[in-house]
């Protein structure tokens, strides 16, 4: 959110967020797989860096999903965290498909 508010790229912060969530699971395999696959597994990495309304709308949606995940974890609400992560993953899949469709 700080990167977004400052008009900076959010790509590295987004990947760090996902690595932190992986580390919090206490299952090192999750983090190892994500690190192996790299930031390209996150649809955000395929967006252009220049500011645009499309990118801003996209990033606001992702930031909202991330906030829901963080809030649930902060509240130690495993069911809500799981649901928030599922919503985020499903949203990411849909965004990735849309990005691939527009790239053709």
Describe the fold and architecture.
The chain is mostly helical. 73% of the residues lie in helices and 0% in strands. It has helices at residues 2-5, 11-24, 28-37, 53-74, 78-103.
Gross geometry? globular
- Number of helical regions: 5
Give the total of beta strands: 0
Residue-averaged pLDDT, rounded? 83
Q: Span from first to last CA?
A: 30 Å
**Backbone CA Rg:** 14 Å
**What is the strand content?**
under 5%
List low-confidence stretches.
none
Element pattern in H and E:
HHHHH
As a percent range, the share of helical residues equals over 70%
Biggest sheet features: none
User: Which class do the helix and strand fractions yield?
Assistant: mainly alpha
Describe the structure using short key phrases.
5 helices; globular
Describe the protein's topology:
Layout: H1 2-5, H2 11-24, H3 28-37, H4 53-74, H5 78-103
Question: Concise description?
Answer:
The chain is mainly α and about 100 residues long.
